[in-house]
Specification:
Elements lengths: L3 E3 L4 E5 L8 H9 L19 H7 L5 E6 L2 E11 L2 E9 L8 H15 L4 E7 L6 H6 L3 E2 L7 H12 L2 H4 L2 E7 L2
Parallel strand pairs: 5-6
Antiparallel strand pairs: 1-2, 2-3, 3-4, 4-5, 6-8, 7-8
């Protein structure tokens, strides 16, 4: 993975490092406060539910990207192989740093990583109607991922979301972006 700089916005994208795992839960909690602006999710308290150790086991070094502004971590993306695709577990951007192209730059970095690693696609699970979730990914070229095309690993991830009740809050959807 190469380092990419968003010069106009003053941020830098770099690979996820060992010291970043401790920062992700707090950043995730801050970013998830935006869900309070979505009527069907407003009453739900989103909090980071993974400790740094759990994150590291799910997303080992090399399985993520970090965005920094002046050395401060302001956003992250985590991913891992699931079935034949690279599964994008999450992109989170601190609320004070949103609308600067950081999320788009992280997504480009994930897509570049997937291409470089030889994956034919990037898959994900997201809220279908939340503007900064499903519609955002669809504008970035993701399309519905039919159940008939999903592998067992992806289906297991979708089932686990239902078990922890995320899917009960607002309709979820499986999306995929096939790479050139």
């Amino acid at each position: 993975m190469s380092t990419r700089t968003g010069r106009s916005a003053g941020f830098r994208i770099r690979p996820l490092g060992e010291s970043d795992y401790a920062l992700i839960p707090g950043l995730e909690t801050e970013a998830d406060r935006l869900y309070a602006t979505v009527p069907e999710l407003a009453g739900y308290l989103f909090e980071a539910n993974a400790s740094p150790d759990i994150l590291k086991s799910a997303y080992p070094p090399g399985s993520g990207l970090i965005a920094e502004i002046e050395g401060e971590v302001v956003a992250f993306a985590v991913f891992r192989p699931v079935d034949d695709a690279l599964y994008l577990g999450q992109i989170s951007v601190h609320p004070a740093c949103q609308q600067r192209g950081i999320g788009r730059a992280l997504l480009r970095g994930v897509l570049d990583h997937a291409r470089g690693a030889g994956f034919p696609a990037v898959s994900l699970l997201t809220f279908a109607a939340v503007p900064f979730n499903g519609p955002w990914y669809r504008r970035a070229g993701f399309v519905p991922f039919p159940v008939s095309a999903q592998g067992e690993g992806f289906k297991k991830l979708a089932t686990s979301e239902i078990e922890i009740a995320i899917g009960a809050l607002s309709p979820r959807e499986a999306l995929i972006r096939y790479l050139d």
